Structure formats: C-alpha cells, structure tokens
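Tutorial handout. Part one gives the primary structure; part two gives the three-dimensional structure as tokens.
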Amino acid sequence: MLRLVCAGRGLSGRSFSTFVRTTSSLSLAAGFWALPGLGASGQVRAASFDITTNTTAAETLSSTNDTGTVAAGVTLTYSADTSTPTVTVTGTDTSLTNYGTISQTNPGGGRAVRVNQKGVSFTLTNADGAVISAAGDDAFQSNKDASVTIYNSGTIESLGGGQAIDLNAVTSGTNEVYNYSTGLIEAFGADALRPGVNGYVYNAGTIKSENVPGNATGNDGIDAQSNSGVTIDNAGLIDGARHGITGGNTDTTTNGAYAMTITNEIGGQITGEDGSGINIDGFNGNELATITNHGTITGNGITGDGDGVDVDGLVYLINSGTIKSTQAYNDVSEGVTVGGGTIINSGTIEGDNINGGDSHGITLAGIDKDSSGNPIPTEGIYADTTVTNSGLIRGETGSAIAVTGAANAFTVEIDNLAGGIIEGGGTEAAIYTGGNDATIVNYGTIEADGTGDAIDLGSGNSAVQILGGSAKVNGNMDGGSGTSTLLIAPGAGNSFTYDDVISDFSSVEIGEGTITLNGANTYAGTTMVDDGGTLAGIGTVSTTIVDDGGTLQPGSGGNPGTLTINGDLTFSADSIYRVAIGAATEVSGEAILNNASLVLTSGNTINVGEKYTILTAADGISGTFDASGTFYSYEVLTSYNADDVFLTFSYGNLALPMGASANVMRIANALDAAVAENPNTQLPSAFNTLFALTPQQLQTNLAQLTGEPATGAQEGAFRMENSFLSLLLDPFAGGREGGSDGFGAASSTGALAYSAESQAQMPAYLADAYAQALPALKGPPPALVYTPHWDAWAAPFGGGAFTAGDANTGSHNTSTTAAGFAAGADYHLAPGALIGLALAGGGTGWSLGSGFGSGHSTVFQSGLYGITQFGNAYLAGAFAFGNYWIKTNRLVGLGDGGTLDSSFTAQGYGGRIEAGYHVPLTAVTFTPYAAVQPQVFTSPAFSEFATSGSSNYALAYNSESSTQVRGELGTWANTTLALDAGRSLNLFGRTAWAHDWQSNPNLDASFLTLPAASFVVEGAKPPANLALTTLGATLDLTGGWSLTAKFDGEFGKGAQSYAGTGRLAYTW
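Part two.
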C-alpha cells in the first residue's frame, strides 16, 4: 500500500502534489491517505475499493470508472462526523455494489452514500439482503445534478429525519430507481423517495414512509416535489404516512406547468395512511397527471383531507382496479378529485367516510385553497371534461359524480356505458353537474341510494340521454334552473320503465322503444313522442305531441291504469293510440285526435256490450280516431261525446292466421258456433281471453285446448292387442315347430317320424340330422300310439313405436309403448291340432311432442286360440279381450289454466285368422301365409278434472268406438340345426306386407264450462301400409323345455315400431 502521511492541514490538491514532490518524510499507501490527529475512524479511502472485512473507514469513488464493492456479511460503517458520508461519489461512470451493509450511524446526521459532483454518472446496486442505512439523514442523496441509477433488491432506509433516497437535486441528469420484489425503501420521519426532474421509479417491492414522534406530518411514500416529468411504475406497495405519492407545482409565479405519469399494475398498492393515495398540487390546467390504475389506490384522511386521487390540475385517468377514499377529517372524502380532464373507469372509484361526513366518488373542481393553504372560493374546472364509466362509481354518503366549482364555459360529459353503475348516497344527487353545461349519456344504471336525486343538472344548460335496453335510473331527475332536455330512447324492441319524478326539464323526448313513466312528473316542457317510440304509464306528463309513427299507450304492464297529461294532447294523422281495457288517458286541456289509429292491446278480458271510456279531455275532444285497426276477434263500436271517447265490444269470429291446422280450426269454429247461438250472452271469462289474442297467439293457445292426448289411448290399445294376438299364434314357439305336433314343418304320418321310411320322406337336412342323432333301428319299429298332451308357456313382451304428427291436421308426433307378461297353455288334441288359452297383464303409455300431454293405461288381457294342420297347410285362429284402466294428462298455459287429468276404463276386442302352406326345400322351409286381424276399441264418455290451476278449459269426451282391420301377406322361413344331447335349434324369420283399415284416431269433445262448443280432435294417424319383419330362434332343450326369443319390426311412412318377445315353454 502507498500511504500518504501529512504533517500539515488543509492541503489543497495543488499543495498536496507539491508536497509529494518536495517532502522526503512521506509514507504512501495506494488509494488511502490519513490526516494526523484523525485516527483510524477518520480515514477516507480514495479510488476503487473492495471491502471484504468489516471497516469503519469512509470511502470515495473519485475517479472515472471507479468501482466499489462491499461483500456479503461485511459492514462498511462510518460515524465519526455528520458531514462525511460513508461513501462519497465524485467520479464519473462510477458504480457501487453492496452485498453487505453500508451505514452512517451518527444520529446527528450524515449520509450513507452521497453523489457530490455535478455531471457525473453513478450506478448503485443493492443486492437482496444488503442494507444501506443512515441514522440521522438520507441513506442515499445526490447533492448535485448528476445522473444516478439505483437497483435495489435489499433495504435502503433512513432511520431519523432524512429520505431513504433523495434525488431532488437532479434537474437534467438521468435519475432512475428500480426497487425489485425483495426491495425495501423506507424512511422514518421523512419521505421515503424523492425523484428528480424527469425521474423514473419502478417498484415491485415496498416504498414506505413512517411517522416518528416529533415528525408526524408531511412524510410521503414518494414526493416528487416540484420536479416535473416524473414517471412511476408500481407493481408493489407504495405507502406514505401522509400521501402515497405526491408532488406538484404550487409556485404561482410560474405558469403552473407540471407533469407526472403513474402506472399502478395489477396487484400494485398505493396508499396514503393520513392523506391521499396520489396527491398532486397545482393551481391551473397547465398541470397534467397521467394515471393508469389496475391495482388499488387508497386515501385515508385521519387528521386532514384524504382522497384516493387528488389532482389540482388536469388528469388523464384510466382505472380498471380500485380507487377509494375511506375518510377525510372535517372535509369531503373523495375517490377522485381533479380539476378536469379525462377519466375512463372500468373498475371501482369510491368515496366513503366512515366518520359519517360527506363523500364523493368523483369531484370535478378547481382549487379551494391558495398557495398558503388559506381557503378561497372553489374554482371551476380547467378544461372540458369527460367521464366514461363501465364499472362502479359510488359516493357512499354523497354524490357519485359532483361538479362543485364555480360555473365557467368548460363542459362536462358523463358517459355511463352498459353495465356501468353510478351510485350516490345521502341527500346529494348521484350525479350533480353544478353550473357547467353537461351531457349525460346513460346506457347503464344511475342510482340514488339515499334521499337525493339520481340526476341534478344544477344551473347549466344540459342534456340527459337514456339509451339502450339495459339503461336504468333509480331516483328523481331534476333538470335544474337552466334550459335542459331529456331524451329516453331504449331502441326498437327494448323498454325503459321509470317510477320516479322528472322535474324542470324544458322538453322530454320519447325516442324509439317503449317508455313507461309512472311517476308524478312536474316538468312543464313539451313531451314529444317520436316515430317508433311508445309512451306508456300511469304517471303524469306535460303537454304531449304524438308524432307520425309514435304511440301513446296508457297503462303500465299488467296495470291498465290512467295516464295523466297536464296540458294538451295532439295526435298526428299517422300516430297510434293503443289501449287496454280499463286503461285511459286524462287530459287537462284539449285532445286533438286527427284520425289517429285506435288499436287494442292483446290479452284483455272484455265484457261484451259494456261501454269503456278510453280518453277524457277537460277542454274537449277534437276529431275522431280511425277504429279500423286491430281489435283481434272482437267487433268494436267507437263513440264520442264532447269530452270523452268510448269503446263498446261484441264478439266476432276468432281470427286465425292463414294455414291454421284442422284441429285448431275445428275448435275455433266450435267457439264461433257457440257465440252464434247466443250472440248477446257473455262467455265465461276464460274464453273472453281468446278473443283478445293476436292470430298467432290464438293458434298457439287453441292447440293446447284441443285435448289431443286422449286420442293416444286407441293407438296404445291396438298395439297391445296386436302383440298379444301375435304371441298366441306364434308358429315357432316351443312345441309347435318341426313335426306332426305343431304347424311348422310337414309330416305324412300320424306317428313320430323317426323310421327310415319316414326319414326318406323328410327333407334331406332333417333326415341327416335324425340319422346322426339316433342309432339305426334293426327291424320294424314298434307301433306308437299318439297321446294328447299339454304345453305350458310364459312370455314377456313389449316394444315402442313412433308416429309422426301431421301439421295440416294439427296432430303432434306421438311416442307409444306397450309391454306385458303373458302365460298360457296349449293342449295338443291330435297330431297337427291344438287349442289353448292365455292371460296377460301389462300397460301402455304415450306422449305427444312439444309437451302437449301424455297418458298411460294398466291392461288385463285374455285369449283363446286354436291351430290345425292339413298336410303341408295349416289354419290358425285366435280371439282376445283387453280391459284398459286409462289416465291422461295435459297442461294448459293460457290464463289460469293448469294441469288437466282424466281417468276412465275402456275395452278392446280382437281376433286373428291365419292360413299358410309349408314348402320344404333342401335346408330351409318357406311358409307363405295370409292373415286377417280385426280389432275394436271402445271408450266411454269421460271428463277431465283439474289437479292444479282451474278447470276452465276441461273437456268432456263422448263415447267412441274405433276399429282397425289388418290384412297381411308374407312368408316365414325356418331351418333346424341338430345339436348334441338331443337338442336342436330352430332359426326363423318373416317378411310381410300389412295393410291397416283403421278409423281415424278421433274423439268428439266439448268444454265443460261451454258445452255448446263441441268439436272433433284428431290425433296422429299411423300409416296404412307397413313392412313387417321378424327374426327369432327357438332352442329345444331336454326334458320337454324350450326357449324362444323373437324380434319384430314394423315400418311405414312416418312411423316405425320395434318389439321383442321371450318365451319359455314346457311340454308334458
């Protein structure tokens, strides 16, 4: 080391160099010099350094490109005096990297690191876990206008009265602070960070100021002071004992120019513990703060004012996070208070005051104090101002948005988009626009939660527009003392209902859509109903003009009521007056009708012959209405006196649309006929409703009244009977196939055909099977005698069917199921002849498409049958009876209709005659056949009853007898396979054509409450021609047992069905 030991004092740089050249008593140590009398603690190192052991000597980076490093776990501490920093920077392009601790521990003052040379550039890196601290002053200060960059992942702290980082002196150089996620910049009793002019601060960690005893005011997280151009990007926490972030130009000797840009990222927090989250002082529109918030900004005024964002000048604010003030001592607590500019909110801006004082979501006003802090009259806004909201703006105890400054020429526009909420509380209006001209455009919700108005336009000349189908206003709307207008236009097909009071508007315009006004409105300006607009309600409006294409409709929703007009009412020639029964308009002045169209609303309950007053005018009626408009199925008489307009109704024919179905037309004709029989008699109220429906509504509702579900009982019964008859005469059931005992394959003898002679007459495949299964007999067999015997069998059966409805008829798609379990016995009288009987139990079910109803039945069946064979020909016949316990269900949605059920017992009868001929071939036997199957289904007269709702539309059905005669032509095919142990497997199938002569599934019905209205309802009709298919197999087991499985299908135009049968038989 080179050590310079100087005996003199106060050496300048020049005298020092001279001293080096001329003095012989000099000791040198590289980069280090000491003055006599200072001792070790007074040592100051010069040039680059690398501290690896604890030291108390101060360091200096004095030359270009000098570097300093403090190793991890190592302490560089200085405390000898308050004027010497622990590290002094005077050289340019220098850097200091700290992994350990750099501290100035003198409580009387002194900085840990200080840049003390103008124009130099310096970089400080404070690593994770590293500490830079000062006990009595700034931890880091640039005392000159230098360029400084700080990277902090550790702790930079001032413990008593100074800033953690002070760059206030930097006015032209770069000053950037990067505080990473583990970084802490903290000051006790002072601001945590002061950037310089055009400074940049990035924070992902914590920047925080704390109050200390004796210094409990004015301590901010970041204080830019009057340094303009500062940019702050926060993703961590900025927490000020007073304001979170502050700055601004309050020097009234300047033009007030100042700019600051703040971005608070998602998760970022900016908090003022006893002040504003962001506070920027100023005094005119030359100050602009650009704020983008995706996180949380909070103000809290414990001892003074505290706002979320407080900018005395102009602001460009974009918020998708939360900006909130929780309280303000003896002041208004405001989420945002600014002197004007642009605010775009999709998050939450909220002013609360937990101490019960006033609060605003947004206040628009200039300053209310002079540069000395003395109160002055609040100035007006400093520029045209726009607030666009799609989130929530709320004042818990006051206005959501308030313009409170002095009136001036600058304008205010408030655009509340769909989904946006502007909500006020207390006694103030949710929106108050003061003395400025304002435009309020609302697509969302404006709501007064307290006793104040929703909108108060103050003294400006302003306009309110309520647009779109989702717009809502809850609370009164006051047009103020200026000349203000109101437009309500929800748009075609949309509606807006308002129950509160409209006052002090110079005009109210009803635009496109339906607007219902139910409040006792007091405005005196004209009400204009535009083309495409409908004014409805039971409130009060001013003088009203209904323009061409506009509609006036007294009443509100289900309440017909009266609409009151204070003034005159004028209809244009092409306007519309739409009324409901019980609704009317009362006019305090004159009503001028101008031949406007008179139209009746749908769904009215009308007493025919009664005279209804639909309009009254105190100063008389001028002109008439055109009553040729839509009165649906009523005929109407319009009459007038001097002050009133009346309507009187009589029944007309029910008006159906073109192409209405036959079922609907039949029921409409029935109702028309009932009216024609007694034209002056009032129908039951439930049927009056039908005459007040549009044609399309009438068609839909009449379809519900036809009672079509009851027609499904017939189809279910026919399918159940068909399955039962097919089961009785199944030619391939166990015990009936392959031999002289049944009517499957042919035989020429009356004995069992096991002899060689018999086998010679058999088909070759049967002869081979017997030859393999039985040993050859030696000699003639013994004579066998036929013995009559029994077969007992049991069989589950069932299936489902779909039948398409017919739009012309008005029938609906119908799905039908039929299933049961049968048991019976065959008695074999003689070879090729048997008789039998069977019993079955089961059920049917059906349902109509589109929810038009359903039904089901419980069934008992019995049957007799017989079969005989003549050589290769056979003849079979069966008779069956079924008893059906039936229930139906349908839902009527018209009026007070409900669920209608019925319950009745019906019977079914059927028979089948079948003949066929066996044609044996080499491996397969074909059996062409023909069959006739007649059925009859009889139902008694029965009636419906209500299980919910009313029985107004319940029907009474006449007794009915329906027939179906089926003819079948087809062929069976079967083959027998010999198995081991004396068993055999018979495979069979069928294809056939069937034609059904079936009466239509119709029922005669009439209404219980209107018996004169009788009609025929027709259900879905199955096709006449069908293709039949069958596949099955019978397994002959040992010991007299056999098992059969069969699958059947029927296919026709618009219909198909599938059925399955299993059968177990025993022969003894």
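Part three, for discussion. The first helix runs from residue 13 to 22. Residues 149 and 176 are 5 Å apart (CA to CA).
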